[in-house]
Structures are given as C-alpha cells and as structure tokens.
C-alpha cells in the first residue's frame, strides 16, 4: 500500500512538471511583429473613419456646422458635449488609433530588410507616414488648441506637457515641408497598403501641397507672412481638378464600409434630418446639389426640400434626410478636394497673395467642381453661378461672406472642415438654438480623462489658452 | 458496528428498564429542560426545570443529550438505575472549523479571525445562488446582489484591496479552490448593454454544503499563496454518516416585485418632448387621418418622453394602435389619458421549484453520498428562466486501516433563457420604462399587439407615414424575439489518497479538476431597432491542482502540541474562448446561425490564456497547554505570468492566540476569553500575457493587411503584488455562554500593485501595466451572539454582525494621481484617486456661492466645466446584519435584517427619467398653485432653489413647457447622486418540525420539516426613489452606478424536508 501511495505521488508530480512554466505565458493568437504597411493602412482608415463618422459618440461636427440636426435626442445639437464624452472619444481615437500607429509605422519603416525594400522606398514610406501624422495633429490642434505634442507618444512619460498650439502649428508646417522634400515619384512605397492613393507618389505630392495650402491659409490671421509663404509655394503643385481629390474608397461589406452607412443605414436609427440652416440657404439658390445632399420632403408629392429647425425636436418622417448617395456602403470619404483648394486660391487672391488668376475665377472653379463632384452637370453649375445671388461680382457681402457661404455649402458632409472654416471666416452667420447649453463651440473642451490623469498639465494648458471652455478662441481664430 | 447497533435497537423493544437521572453542568449545577433521546430511535424525553428526568431505557441504548448552551453529549448508561450526566458548557469557540487546505482545527486554537456559517443557514431560504444568502451573516463580508435573474454577486471581504485586479473572495470546496469567474464584458460592467451571466460559484449546490467557514484575513489564508489575498470562503461538503440516510427537500417559491423599487409615473401629461410639433398647441402631430379633410390630433409616437400635451379625457387623439391594422382600435382616435396598465404590469409573478434528494451512508469501511438538486427558476420578466441540475457524488473507502481513498465528483448544468438585458440598451426594458416612455402607453395592449401579430408592433412608430420602430421595440418583442440562451456544464472533482504513516503523521496526495464549458448565444431579430444579429460565445475553463501534503500532529511534551504541515501545490489553468458574430445583419428571419449572416462573416475573436503556479508551503501550529497558540506559515510560489527574474515570491505569516480564560477558572461571569494577534503577507501575480507587447489584427482591407498597436502597454519587469495584513481580535463569552462577542480590528496595506494604469491617451495608449500604488484598508468587525431568553418551550437567540471598513488610496506610483476605473454614460467615472477611498464617483457639479447652488441669469444652474469633481463615494460607512431566531416547541421563526449605511450611487435612470417627465416630481402645481409645466407669464414654471451669482436668492421663474426642466439637461451629474443606504428584511423563515414522538409512528421517516420562507420581503428604509439601492450592473470593481435598474423580487416559498 505504501508503494501505491508513492507511485501515485510520483505520477502526480510527473504530470504536472513536464513543461517549463515560462512557456505557459506565451500569446499564440496575436503577433509580436508586423509590417509597417499594415499599421499605416489601419491608421489611415481609422483617421478617415473618425472624420467621416456620424456617430453622436464620436463625430458631431456636421451638427456644429448645422448641416444636419437631431430628431429626438437633441443634446449634441444644443452643444451638450459632456453626456457622451465626445471630446474624450475623438481625442482617444486620434491619439491611440491614428498618430500612435503612424509613429509605430515610422519606427518600423527603416528596420525593414534592405534586401527587399530599397532606400528610396523607405524614404517615400517615411515621408507618407509623416504627412499622415501631420494631418492628424493638424486636426487635433484645430479642435482643442494646445495639446501634448513634443512629449506625446512616449509611454515613459504618462503626463505629457501640453505645447503651445501656435508653436505646434509652425512645427507641423516644417515637418510637412521636410516630408515633401523626401517624396520621390520614381520610387516605390506602400502600394496596396496606401488606402488613399495606392502608393502613387505623384498624388502624394499634390496631396501634401494641398494640405500645406489649407494649413497655410488657416494661419493667415495669426501669422500672415508665414501663411502667405506656405500658400504661394504650395499652390502651383496643389490640386488642379477633381481627379486630384484625396478620396478614401470604402468597400461594400462591414467592417470596411463608410461609417455613415453603419450609423444611418445598418443601425436602423433615425437620429438625423437636414437642418433648416443649410436647406433654407440652398433652397434660395435652387442649388443643384440639393437632390444629392438630401432626400425630398416625404410629406408632399412635389420634390421640395425641408430642413428641421436646428436644435429643436424634429419629427424624422417630416423632413429631408441625408441623400441616397451618402448612404451607400462604399460612399467615398474626402480628406481634401479640389473645390476646397480653389476656394483657398480665391481667398488668397483677396488677401493679396499671388496664386494666379482672379478671386472670381477660382470661386467659379470651386463651385463648379463641387457641383460636378456631387453629380451635377456643367450646365447646372453655370446656371447656378449665373444667379446674381451667387455670382461673385454680385453676391452679398465681403469676400469672407461670399466665399464662406459657398464653401460651407461645398464642404457638406465634411463636418470638421466646415466647422473650422466657419470659425475662421465667420460665415455663414450661424445662430445657436434657443435651448443651447452654450454658444456655438469654438473648440472642444479637453477630455475628462486628461482632467483626471494629466491634471497639472491640463490646468496649465487651460490657463494658457484662456480657459478650458468651448467659447475660448484658438490662436488662428482671431475674429 | 452498524449491524450491531441496529440489532441493539431491535432488541431494545422487548428489554427495557426504567432509569432516572439528572443533567448537570461542569460545576454541578442542574441544567434545565435538556432533551434526552435514544440514539437510533426518535423517542426520548425532556428534563424538568431541575434537570431531572425519568425514562424507559432499552438495553444497550445510547443516550443523546442536548441542551441549549451546552455541547451535545452521547453516553451509554451503565447498569445503575440512576444516572448523572454532566454537560460541558457550549463554547461556540470549541467547535471544529475547517481552515486553509482543509485542515480541521478546534476554533479554540485559531489565532486569527474566522466565522462559520452552517449549511442550513445558506440553504434555508432555497435561493438558487447560495452566495447571496451570506449577506448580513458574516462580519466584514460585503455582498452586493443584483436584481436580474441569475445575476452576478459581488463578494468582497474587508474592502477592495486590488486597484484593478480581482477583489472577489476565493471559494474553496473541501480544500480545493473552485473558479468563480465572471465573464461579463467591459461594456456590460460599464452599463452599456449586454447580459449579466452571473458568476461560476452559483454552480455550487447549496444542499451539499455542510458548513462554510469564512477566513477573512491574510494570516488565515496565507497558505493559499497568490490567490488568497481577498480572503477565502471555505466550503465543507456533506459526508455520509453511519447507516443509510435519505433526505428529500421539495420547495416552491412565488415571486412578485417590490413596488417601492420601481418607477412611479406622473399621470397628467402624455407623449412628447414639448411644444415642438404640428397642431396649434404644439404638442401633437396634425394630420388628416380619417380622410374627412379635417386635421386630427396625433400622438408624436416617435417621441419617447412624457412632456407632451396635458391629459384630457375629452380630447380624442390617434395613438400608436390607431395605425396597427390588426388592432381593434385601428383607425380610431382615443381619449388622451394616462394608461390603465403602466409598465409595472409588465412584470410577472413567477413560481419557481427547487427539489433535491440526498442519499448517504457509511460504515467503518467508509462512506458515500449522492445528491441531486433540480432548480427551475423563473424571473419577473416575460420569457426568462434558469434551470439547474446539480449532481454530487462523493465516497471514501478505507483500503486498509492506514490508507484511505476518497473521490468526489460534482456535475452541474445551468441553462439560462432570457436573462435580463442590462445597461443602457434596447434589450433592457427597464431602461425603456425608467427613462424613455410615454405614460399613455398601455403595456397590456402592447402585449396583445405582439401576441396578435408576432411582429414588432411598437408604440414608438417613426411616424404615421412610416410604421417602423424608431428607438424602442415593443417590450414583448424584446423578450420573445431578442432573447439570449446560455448553458454551462461543469465537472468538479477530486481524487485523493491519504496514508497514515504513524499515529502522528499522515500524508495526502490529491488531484483535482475544475472543468467547465459554456456557451452564450445572443439574438437580435430582423425587424428590431438594432441591427439583426446572432452572437455566439463559447469558453472552456480547465484547472488542475495537484497537492501533496504531509501532516504532523504530535504532542512534543505534556504541555506542547505540534501540528505541522509541509506540502506542494501545482496549479495549471487553461482558458480558451471564441466569440463569433454575424456581420451586417441576418438574411433569413428567426434563424440564428453564423451562416445566416448578411455580409461575409468577420473573423471571430479568439483568446487563449494559460497560467501555471507552482507552490511549496509549510506551516507549524504550536499549542502550549491548550491556551497559548502560535502559528507560523510560509509559502513560496512561482508563477508563469511574471518575468523569469521576478517569478518566485514568498508569503509568510505569524499568529499568536492566548486563551486567557483557561487561567481564570474562578471568574464566573466570563466563560471564555481569547485574544489573538497576527501578521501576514500575501500577494498576487500578474494577469497572463501582460509582459510582452502584441499587435492586434483587424479585418483586411482588400489586399491590405490591417494591424494596430495594443491599447495597453505591457511591461516585462513586473513584480508580484503584495498585501501586508495585521489583525488583532478578542473573543469573549459571558454568563455561561449566553452572550458571545468577537471583535476584530485589522489593517491591510496592499502595495506594489500590478495595474494597467490608465494613462493620458496622448501617450498613444489607454493604459500601461505598472507595479505601483498602495491601498490601505482598516476596519473593525463585531459579531455578537446571545440568547436573551430561554425556557423549556421557548427560546430567543440573536446573532449580530457589524463591520466597517475604511479604505484609502495612499499611493499611485508618483506619476498619476487618479486611476480611472470605469467611465459611464452621464459623464461620470468611478475612480481610485490619491488620498481618496477606492471607488469615488466623479462628474460635473453645481457651482456653489456661499454653499448654495448658483443659478445663472437664464434661471438654470451653473455647472462646472470640468467633470473631475468628486461627487460621491461608493463605500458604505458600515454594514451589518441581525439574525433573530425564536423557537417555540417545534416551531422556529428566524428572520434576518440586513443593513447598509452610507455609500453613494449615480442613477442614470433619474438623470434621464426626470428630464423626460416620467416621474411625479415633474408634474403637478408650483409654489403659486399653477402648473409646474407652464409659462412664467401665467404664473407657471419653476424657480430653481439657489442663489444668483451675487449671492441673492434666485427669483428667476423659468418656462418648463419643454422637456429638461428636471433631469440631466440643465443639471450637473452631482444632482443624480443618491445615498445607497438600506435596511432590508432580507429573509424570514418559519419551520415546523414534526415532534419526535409523532415521528416514531411514521417510520421509516425520521423527520419532517415544513417551512415557509420569505426573501427580500421588505425594504424597511432607503433613500433612493423608485429603485433598490443595492442593485447594480454587475459584480466586480465598478459599483455605484444604476442604469435600467430592475425591481427587487420579493419571494415567498414553501418547503418540505423529509428525512428517512
């Protein structure tokens, strides 16, 4: 019996000890090594998703621009940003999903095996990654103001200091120039992993110059000299037609569809209708884009467009809704388009920069490009521009009002850009709804998590920008 | 021996003699009213007030003597016709308890705090989850049960010790740890929807529990090493007794909701958000429905609020049912009045069954037991049910006089159907009823509409011209179409051999397996507001434990006894899970399979995790003259989840007990006294796979591979975390043990914690694994037992437990000053912040002027811009329970009052429900006697209590015609913090035991008990309106948040217990 017991004990021990204990901790379902291209592709998509999304938890810029309004739950239309932690979610996605992964790709690009990846390819990939990173930080700095930048993306410093937004802006323009200098159209790059241009470096050169123009113009009221230099240098190589648009082509099946389809179609929700603010203006111009932007009003037989009162409770069935074009699974998203660049050129002329042509010429190009992009005909564009209320010579107001109004119409569906241009040009003159919690936000407040986790730097940043309020003007938004 | 006894019993019938005797205590004083029974027969007698008795005694009979306050005694009378029986005063402390690793010790000798609960105490109320029956019965044990059927139960001993790790007490059955995982998803625990699948300890059969011993402090549990830092609930299962015994328990329970824990509704205004719509009043849609060319009033059915038009029985309004062609009311308007059947009629009054049979037996050679329990439990929601089958088998056989083989196997199968949807989700009807509802909707009519059509005919139509549900489904559709099913099959078994080498040394080898497989299937039907979906989660769990123990029990001298133990434990845990879900909806209605996906299936999520811990341990307990006790223990663990250089660590403990009453023999008022002090250090290893960094793979985009960095930064330099614990206690018994008192003070420091510390997202991560931080828990526990009243027929005993814990986050590693534990809808978060208790609620607050809420020039409260103000603390000030037992002859009445004092919670139900005008506070008349929901011009509206910025009392009367006057819209999160205190009549039972004399005529039946049982009968006190302050979203570290809270189920049951 004693023997049985001893045998039993030995068997027990033998069964338990055969493997080295350390091997038990291995992960078998996730990799420790990946290609920089796979990180780049994913980060590109996350950035575009976030800017395109219409989820009330992520992206409410279409509401801030008063393109759409909410039906029943009107909190965000009334500038309640806190209930759904929107500033937190937007910040979180851009930092952890976009810039962090561009930085990780940048780290891995030079480590690729030189046998298979040429030095020229490495240089192009690094430049593309840099441009995407600049774009992402440009968005962040334009939404919040001061942000962690020089000390950001360092896990060994979990309380990164905030940098001055004007200084970040200057630095970003410098990085953009440096990246532009490295792009070499004779070289290869990410190919299929570049979801914007399929690795076409000539397109990247146009895109980077267009971004430089856009960022340059935004800087004008704060630093006219630097703005002028950037815009004038970039304009000749920036977008010249809709062919040059920085568009992101979504696919037909989840999870790679346009997020608008997810939010508006797949979800079955009925949260948004057209806002009267935009529809009323477009109705007065009999805008040919109305039929693409919105559905007709279902309560009448004639095709008329009717927007819900912005910020008020609106019955979903009664009003025009986002148009069929927007609801396709593979509806493309835009980062920058030709129309926008032409509006910048028009404005550049008005602000005394030399970009060639007249303000009216560029204005007409911009409006026509937008109408044609959305599906209108050149004839429709011409007759639209022929109206005295639209024609550059006769339309009401200053150049800011003329360009601001038409640019606002053209930027439809690009909420972030529209909101930023409204903040910059102050046209059209949007009005906050009567029940709004605050005035129309001029920036997002900092995330709750920053308040809790990075308290000291948060407090300093809040003081530096003039208070962590939605009404604090950012440095470039002088007027 | 058994046959001999039986023979004696049979022979005894003919050969009897009369004896008379007296029962006395240790000091020779008579013990009144003792019960004297003949072993093996039901018959017996009782002593009188002087302890005297006379009875017929069969030859060779053994007497069993019992008296309240004294130990039971068995004696075989000699031939003398007179007899004196001396009873020893009961010492609750002398009972034998089971301690770490299954070591049995007399409670006398324990130098640390342990509190025993009998199996009857947890199975008495026939609840299906015995864990919740512990509430209020153990000092220092905080149980939080959630109101959903089969929901998880939070079991925390002596406060939260781990910042982000597991804080649940360890469950150990007969010396072997049993898994008590809770797999609720991060979304579920943060109130964003999903189901609470409960925790795995619910698989334990309450009818198989002989006793539970709660080891609270680290000194008691240090032998378990890395997994015992949260205390241990030791479960001893029933063993077979001599002869064959059969016990049958059959019970039925009837439930209904406690209406004080559900919403009350205002009955003055119907559906809508305010004056936003089409008719001249602005409260209704205005369409020509009946084609008479005149516009009609139509309920704005898309609006899920009750801030619409004032009720008026004379006003005819087309409502949701007017557009349902199958409705008797199709095409007809109806009076604009509050519904006859509100949401409270949605809840059902379920009946549940609980049946069990236990067979056991034994002889000199060994014992066996076999048990089967079947529970059918229905919930208060339609189409909800949990069925449990639990089978236990255990047997032990003495192969030789020295070698014993023992094996147990427990099989359980839990089948859930229609668990309650939780959180802020369309599948949670309480979320709908408490936050987003039109009080003119009749729930019973919605029920008829669903059963008439089997379609999603909802009150929440998009529009009369678009009959699709907009935000909310028909609540019956939700339950009958969008239901979940789940099942868990579990085997838990051990085999062991023990060998008695000499009379003071034995060796035990044991292998045990805890193994379960579970599947959870969730459905959303085509036609729901949410995207149709089928989701399938399967998980398998295996844990193997191998133990080898040597036990020494030896008297080293006449005065010194040594109990020592040396052993090793090898643990291997394997967890493997996979989650798969249809993509983009379902193609074919009502078929729930992965192949029924609309878009191509996305890759499922796989997760594999393995953990190994190798431990070696030793302990020595020295007893000097049975009054001085010293315990020393030590354990060394090696864990696979820590880096090689740091993976070995030690847990020491030292405890000293002094039974000073042994030295105070002449002190009559004090019958027992012991003091004890101890120190221990226990700890915990890291979560698996938290050392190296991994990337995540996403679905490919065409030809492009998609990967991303992880959100949590791992750390290859982690060290084990540690809890240091000090404890001092005193146990006293007075007046011949009529009163017993146990007081314990403890202080614990949990240091060097392994935490995925949330970091600024600007680092590119959400969190980073670090060793940092310290939480201190200090507390006081008091248990008091007393029998204030005792006569022959009547006795009253009280057991009281009280404890308070003070918890403080002392250090977070210097870099961070706040650890965000969870963030919630409503802009609130639960935090562990430096110098604050664990679990503070943060959010936006009022701005105060001279201590008063400040009102802005628009008549609304000013709200802080920042959301990091501390607005609540989820920790209670103290918790306690009082159990009273009244016994009159054969009838016993017991009831438990369970108290929680203090602690806060945030209610999202009030946050939204007040804004949407559901509750009575949002209607009625204002200070001027005009409607609250009115315009100031007519004297209506409200003045918010507070002051203006200049400190003057606010006099601005504001328009409250539209929604949001109350509730979230113009108030900070702080306005929805409530005190979570409660006093509950938790359980009450009346038991009638058929008297022994009667039983003798009912052979072979040996005992019959009838019981009437009540659970959650009455919330005697609470401060939270319309809900149960105890209810939460899930067990775990995030407590103090309510969303879509379910009402409490009050249940009354009947049980019959038969013993053969």
Protein architecture, described:
The complex is a heterodimer of chains A (479) and B (1060). In chain A, the strands form three sheets. Chain A has a two-stranded antiparallel sheet with strand order 1-5. A two-stranded antiparallel sheet of chain A has the order 2-3. Chain A is globular. With 479 residues, chain A is mainly alpha-helical. Chain A has helices at residues 2-17, 36-52, 61-64, 86-108, 119-144, 165-182, 201-218, 224-234, 259-266, 276-285, 290-293, 338-350, 359-374, 378-386, 399-410, 415-425, 448-453, 455-465, and strands spanning 68-70, 147-148, 162-163, 246-248, 272-274, 333-336. Chain A contains 18 helices and six strands. Chain B has 1060 residues and is mostly beta strands. Chain B is 6% helix and 49% strand. Chain B is built from nine helices and 61 strands. In chain B, the strands form 15 sheets. Chain B has a 22-stranded antiparallel barrel. A five-stranded mixed β-sheet of chain B has the order 10-15-16-13-14. Chain B is globular, with a radius of gyration of 32 Å. The two termini of chain B are 20 Å apart. The chains are: A mainly alpha (479), B mainly beta (1060). The interface between A and B is large, with 101 and 112 residues.
């Amino acid at each position: 019996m004693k023997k049985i017991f001893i045998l039993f004990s030995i068997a027990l021990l033998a069964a338990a000890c055969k493997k080295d204990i350390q091997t038990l901790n291995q992960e078998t379902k996730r990799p420790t090594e990946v290609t920089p291209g796979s990180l780049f592709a994913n980060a590109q998509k996350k950035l575009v998703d976030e800017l395109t999304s219409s989820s009330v938890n992520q992206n409410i810029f279409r509401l801030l621009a008063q393109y759409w309004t909410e039906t029943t739950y009107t909190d965000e239309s009334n500038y309640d940003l806190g209930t759904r932690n929107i500033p937190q979610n937007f910040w979180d996605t851009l930092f952890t999903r976009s810039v962090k992964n561009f930085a990780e790709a940048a780290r891995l690009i030079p480590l690729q095996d030189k046998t298979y990846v040429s030095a020229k390819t490495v240089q192009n990939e690094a430049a593309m990654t840099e441009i995407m990173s600049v774009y992402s930080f440009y968005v962040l700095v334009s939404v919040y103001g001061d942000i962690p930048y020089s000390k950001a993306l360092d896990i060994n410093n979990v309380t990164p200091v905030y940098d001055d937004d004007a200084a970040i802006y200057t630095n970003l323009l410098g990085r953009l120039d440096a990246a532009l200098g490295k792009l070499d159209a004779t070289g290869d790059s990410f190919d299929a992993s570049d979801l914007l241009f399929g690795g076409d470096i000539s397109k990247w050169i146009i895109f980077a110059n267009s971004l430089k123009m856009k960022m340059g113009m935004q800087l004008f009221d704060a630093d006219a000299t630097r703005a002028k230099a950037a815009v004038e240098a970039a304009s000749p190589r920036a977008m010249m037609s809709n062919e040059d648009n920085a568009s992101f082509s979504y696919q037909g099946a989840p999870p790679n569809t346009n997020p608008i389809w997810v939010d508006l179609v797949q979800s079955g929700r009925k949260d948004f209708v057209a806002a009267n603010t935009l529809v009323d203006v477009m109705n007065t111009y009999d805008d040919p884009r109305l039929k693409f932007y919105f559905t007709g009003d279902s309560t009448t037989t004639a095709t008329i467009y009717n927007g819900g009162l912005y910020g008020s409770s609106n019955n979903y069935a009664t009003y025009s809704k986002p148009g069929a074009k927007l609801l396709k699974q593979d509806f493309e998203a835009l980062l920058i388009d030709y129309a926008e660049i032409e509006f910048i050129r028009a404005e550049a002329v008005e602000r005394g920069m030399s970009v060639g042509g007249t303000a009216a010429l560029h204005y007409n190009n911009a409006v026509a490009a937008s109408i044609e992009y959305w599906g209108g005909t050149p004839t429709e564009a011409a007759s639209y521009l022929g109206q005295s209320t639209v024609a550059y010579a006769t339309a009401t107001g200053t150049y800011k009002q003329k360009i601001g109004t038409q640019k606002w119409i053209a930027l439809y569906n690009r909420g972030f850009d529209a909101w930023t241009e409204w903040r910059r040009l102050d046209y059209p003159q949007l009005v906050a709804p009567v029940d709004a919690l605050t005035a129309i936000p001029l920036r997002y407040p900092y995330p709750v998590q920053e308040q809790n986790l990075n308290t000291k730097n948060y407090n300093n940043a809040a003081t530096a920008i003039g208070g962590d309020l939605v009404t604090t003007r950012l440095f470039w938004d002088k007027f | 021996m058994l046959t001999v006894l039986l023979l004696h019993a049979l022979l005894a019938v003919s050969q009897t003699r009369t004896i008379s005797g007296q029962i006395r205590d240790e000091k020779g004083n008579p013990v009144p009213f003792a019960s004297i029974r003949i072993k093996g027969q039901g018959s017996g007698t009782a002593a009188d007030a002087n302890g005297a008795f006379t009875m017929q005694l069969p030859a060779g009979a053994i007497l069993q003597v019992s008296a309240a306050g004294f130990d039971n005694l068995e004696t075989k009378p000699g031939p003398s016709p007179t007899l004196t029986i001396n009873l020893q005063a009961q010492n609750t402390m002398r009972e034998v308890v089971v301690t770490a690793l299954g070591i049995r010790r007399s409670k006398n000798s324990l130098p640390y705090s342990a509190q025993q609960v009998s199996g009857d105490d947890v199975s008495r109320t026939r609840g299906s989850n015995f864990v919740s029956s512990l509430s209020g019965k153990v000092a220092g044990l905080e149980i939080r049960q959630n109101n959903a059927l089969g929901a998880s139960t939070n079991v925390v001993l002596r406060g939260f010790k781990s910042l982000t790790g597991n804080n649940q007490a360890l469950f150990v059955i007969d010396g072997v740890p049993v898994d008590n995982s809770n797999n609720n998803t991060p979304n579920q625990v943060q109130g964003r929807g999903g189901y609470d699948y409960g925790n795995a300890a619910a698989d334990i059969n309450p009818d198989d529990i002989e006793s539970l011993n709660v080891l609270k402090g680290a000194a008691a549990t240090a032998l378990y090493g890395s997994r015992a830092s949260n205390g241990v609930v030791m479960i001893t299962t029933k063993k077979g007794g001599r002869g064959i015994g059969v016990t049958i328990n059959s019970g039925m329970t009837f439930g209904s909701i406690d209406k004080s824990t559900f919403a009350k509704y205002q009955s003055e205004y119907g559906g809508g958000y305010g004056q936003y719509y089409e008719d001249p009043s602005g409260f209704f849609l205005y369409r020509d429905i009946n084609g008479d060319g005149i516009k009609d009033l139509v309920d704005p059915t898309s609006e899920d609020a009750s801030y619409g038009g004032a009720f008026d029985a004379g006003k005819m309004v087309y409502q949701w049912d007017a557009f349902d062609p199958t409705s008797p009311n199709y095409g007809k308007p109806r009076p604009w009045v509050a519904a006859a059947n509100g949401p409270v009629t949605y809840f059902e009054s379920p009946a549940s069954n609980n049946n069990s049979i236990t067979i056991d037996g034994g002889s000199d050679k060994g014992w066996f037991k076999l048990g089967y329990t079947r529970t059918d439990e229905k919930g208060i929601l339609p189409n909800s049910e949990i069925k449990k089958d639990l089978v236990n088998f255990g047997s032990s056989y003495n192969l030789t006089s020295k070698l014993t083989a023992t094996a147990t196997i427990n099989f359980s199968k839990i089948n859930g159907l229609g668990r309650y949807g939780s959180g802020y989700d369309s599948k949670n009807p309480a979320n709908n009823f408490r936050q987003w509802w039109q009080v003119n909707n009749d729930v019973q009519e919605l029920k008829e509409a669903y059963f008439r059509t089997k379609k999603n005919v909802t009150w929440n139509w998009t529009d009369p011209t678009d009959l699709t549900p907009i935000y909310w489904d028909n609540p019956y559709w939700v339950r009958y179409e969008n239901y979940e099913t789940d099942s868990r099959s579990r085997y838990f078994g051990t085999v062991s051999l023990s060998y008695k080498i000499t009379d003071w040394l034995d060796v035990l080898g044991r292998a045990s397996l805890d193994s379960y497989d579970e599947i959870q299937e969730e459905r959303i039907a085509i036609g729901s507001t949410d995207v149709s979906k089928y989701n399938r989660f399967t998980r398998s769990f295996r844990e193997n434990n191998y133990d080898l123990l040597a036990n020494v029990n030896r008297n080293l001298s006449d005065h010194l006894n040594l109990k020592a133990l040396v052993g090793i434990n090898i643990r291997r845990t394997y967890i493997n899970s996979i989650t798969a879900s249809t993509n983009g909806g379902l193609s074919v209605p009502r078929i729930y399979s992965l192949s029924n996906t609309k878009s191509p299936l996305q890759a499922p999520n796989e997760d594999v995790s393995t953990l190994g811990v190798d431990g070696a341990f030793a302990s020595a307990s020295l007893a000097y003259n049975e009054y001085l006790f010293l315990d020393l223990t030590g354990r060394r663990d090696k864990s696979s989840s820590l880096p090689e250089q740091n993976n070995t660590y030690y847990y020491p403990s030292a405890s000293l007990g002094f039974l000073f009453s042994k030295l105070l023999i002449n002190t009559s008022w004090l019958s027992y006294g012991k003091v004890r002090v101890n120190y221990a250090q226990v700890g915990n290893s890291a979560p698996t796979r938290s050392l190296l960094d991994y990337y995540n793979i996403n679905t490919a985009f065409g030809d492009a591979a998609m990967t991303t960095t992880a959100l949590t930064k791992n750390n290859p330099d982690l060290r084990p975390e540690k809890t240091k614990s000090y404890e001092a206690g005193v146990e006293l018994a007075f007046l011949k043990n009529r009163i017993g008192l146990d007081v314990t003070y403890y202080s614990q420091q949990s240091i060097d914690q392994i935490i995925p510390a949330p970091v600024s997202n600007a680092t590119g991560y959400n969190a980073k694994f670090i060793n940092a931080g310290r939480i201190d828990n200090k507390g006081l526990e008091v248990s008091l037992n007393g029998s204030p009243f005792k006569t022959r027929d009547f006795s009253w005993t009280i057991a009281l437990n009280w404890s308070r814990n003070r918890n403080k986050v002392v250090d977070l590693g210097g870099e961070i000053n706040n650890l965000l534990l969870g963030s919630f809808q409503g802009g609130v978060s639960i935090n562990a912040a430096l110098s604050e208790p664990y679990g503070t609620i943060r959010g936006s607050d009022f701005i105060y002027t001279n201590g008063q809420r400040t009102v802005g020039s628009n008549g609304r409260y000013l709200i802080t811009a920042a959301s990091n103000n501390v607005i609540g603390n989820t920790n209670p000030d103290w918790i306690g329970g009082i159990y009273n037992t009244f016994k009159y002859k054969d009838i016993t009445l017991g009831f438990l009052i369970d108290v929680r004092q203090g602690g806060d919670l945030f209610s999202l139900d009030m946050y939204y429900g007040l804004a949407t005008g559901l509750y009575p506070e949002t209607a009625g008349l204002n200070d001027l006697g005009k409607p609250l929901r009115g315009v100031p011009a007519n004297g209506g509206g409200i003045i918010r209590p507070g002051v203006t910025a200049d400190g003057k009392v606010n006099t601005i009367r504001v328009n409250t015609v539209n929604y949001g006057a109350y509730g979230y819209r113009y108030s900070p999160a702080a306005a929805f913090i409530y005190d979570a205190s409660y006093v509950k009549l938790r359980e009450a039972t009346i038991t009638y035991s058929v008297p022994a004399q009667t039983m003798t005529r009912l052979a072979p039946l040996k005992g019959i008990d009838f019981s009437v049982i009540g659970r959650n009968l009455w919330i005697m006190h609470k401060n939270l309106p319309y809900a149960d302050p105890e209810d939460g979203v899930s067990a775990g570290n995030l407590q103090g948040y309510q969303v879509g809270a379910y009402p409490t189920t009050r249940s009354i049951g009947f049980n019959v217990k038969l013993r053969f």
